[in-house]
Amino acid sequence: MIQPLEISALSKSFETTAGVYPAVRDFSVKIAAGEFVSIVGHSGCGKSTVLSVIAGLQQATTGGVCIDGKEVQGPGTDRGVVFQSPCLLPWLTALENVALAAGQAFPDLSAGQQKEHARKYLALVGVEEVAIHNPAELSLGTQQRVAIARALALEPRFLLLDEPFGMLDSLTRFELQDVLLQVWEKNRKTVVMVTHDVDEALYLSDRILLMTDGPAATLGEVLPVPFARPRQRTDVLEHPAYYRYRSRIIDFLEHHAVQNPAAGPCRTESKNEEPINA
Known about the structure:
Layout lengths: L4 E12 L2 E13 L4 E5 L6 H9 L6 E6 L2 E2 L7 E4 L11 H12 L5 H14 L15 H14 L4 E5 L7 H18 L2 E6 L2 H7 L2 E5 L7 E6 L8 H5 L4 H16 L21
Parallel strand pairs: 3-8, 3-9, 6-7, 7-8
Antiparallel strand pairs: 1-2, 1-4, 4-5, 9-10
Helix pairs in contact: 2-3, 2-4, 3-4
């Protein structure tokens, strides 16, 4: 059976002044429709490179990404992307930023209809009241909500998140995690999120993909997350398995921080998706 999103033996190298740098090597995984998957690893391990290839912003050196069995050749409105920085156009209002995305996805809508479409998604993420404001007038957390609304306004099949809360303070990050979770529960988009935050990955994800360090980083372990949905933060934190799973991830990251990364994954058998024993 063809999975909606399949990454097959993805490898990506970059030309540098010192020679060819193999950022990612032989990364493979299948992601089901409506699944929330996080990619976790040390900074510089190639997480964002993998996401960028899924988004069509970069081409794989070998291997690649398929959607419904067809290889991704470039960006498309079937994939909404949210970066660490909101990346809003500063000369447009919040509403106009989101309406611009709506126009890309739905060019047959009139300008008024595009704005109504945009307003719906601003309301969905809880910031409809800032519609007439320019990005410079908004807090960073509110700007990121607008950026999420802009991605959702495409009504994409896949939502790709590159450390979307990494620049925010802890309280704002927690708040936006809850917003994202509530939105996902409503529409069940397929989500692939890059994060270095172990607790964030455990709170939001169905599965966590753990990457070894680069160069030649790859998928070292796939960890299914056992917490029932819908989720509440307190329920997750109080779950008897929470700290075992957290320790498993941290142990993996510490283990790969001291290995020879060019040798590839040190625990290849851990690619099996088996839950941690109670």
